[in-house]
Batch of 2 targets.
Target 1
Amino acid sequence: MIEEPATLQIRAKIKRPTQAQIDAFKNIPTGFLCDAMEGQGALCTSIQPVCTDGGLPLHAHGPALVADNGPAEILATMGALHIAQEGDIVVAAAHGHTDCAAAGDRFCGMMKNKGVAGFVTDGQMRDYSGIVAAGLPAWCAGLSPNSPYSNGPGKVGFGAVVGGRHIETGDIVVADRDGVVVVPFAMIDAVIAQLAAIQELEDTLDAKVQDGFCEMTKVQAMLKDGTAKLVS
């Protein structure tokens, strides 16, 4: 028989990006980040903003503080709240469990008071009106009024699979109306280095489209070199 784990484990030493690294992701669209990571990086599309009608900000960025809860559990999220630093994104792993809430309005209010920049979970949330009133940007897999438990076991400050991607504490999380993207800690500087070029390319194409551009130059080139052809 395996040894029973501690009810709650909290990592004592947590790696964190520098403030300059964090600031580089302010107001950056999630699509830009995916473009910088070979088209990848987004969590499952089931994880969406809890509010899209203007009641809450639709952009948040910061270092991940991962709370690895079991299904229907919130003990690890409680531990994350205890050690959270200003600007953190609390990421609550519910292991895809969607039959009860992973957080509600009071949790959001306390995280907001602690200076947390946002909340992300692959579980559901509840107390919609209170969440909006708390003012904390949040992304989740829907709403459920069912209550979670806080019995553990849980781990804080390590990593977990959330929305189909492994997230480690210290990774950069950026969330907006399109979804949630994770930049692994080891890739932070490489992604930052590409952002200016991606922005320039986007701005250039936007201007061309606004001026009437409507051609697929890749298709034109393929027709010209024979890799595509017109057929009757």
Target 2
Amino acid sequence: MLVDHFPLLGLRLTTPRLELRLPSPEELAALADVAAAGIHAPDTMPFLVPWTDRPPAEVARGVVQHHWQTLGQWTPDDWELDLTVFHAGEVIGQQTLSARHLAVLREVRTGSWLGARHQGRGLGTEMRAAVLHLAFTGLGADEAVSSAFADSHASRAVSRKLGYQDDGVERRVIRNSLTVDHRMRLTRKEWERHSRVPVTIEGLAPCLSMFGVPV
């Protein structure tokens, strides 16, 4: 079976309302459709790479290509896990966990997006809590970092709710304009203090060497 050669296909995170895992081809198509239907208002850009500034068909194709690219380029020292998020069996968005030299640095980074009609229901907090549990409990991370632009109020609110602290700013050029990127950092201690969402991890053991974690 393919999962025997690529065990990440068997990794699954569950929370009270959500399931996070790698998608089947049909589910990847559904994820592309969600992105093409819209993630944010046209007058805003929450991403460092403005990948949604394209026609819907190109946005959808980009989701598919990026998914394949990250899996194809995976190494234990440099990886990006793009998990599809399901709510009541429906694809609603994507939650990313990534790291470089995790075994040495013990640091992960998170990123995510939700389809516009699924926002405002606390699902963004729950899906990030799921991958933080994977990082701290399953992979032995010491810190997690994230960032959001000044006008990305929902993302910054999620970070604060989960215990992140301010970690400086960077000046960026987005759509040919100055944008201030606010970095945030979550330590293991603060994660333990703020962790409230129950998370179940399945299929992790066969994946540990792929994450660069000593078995």
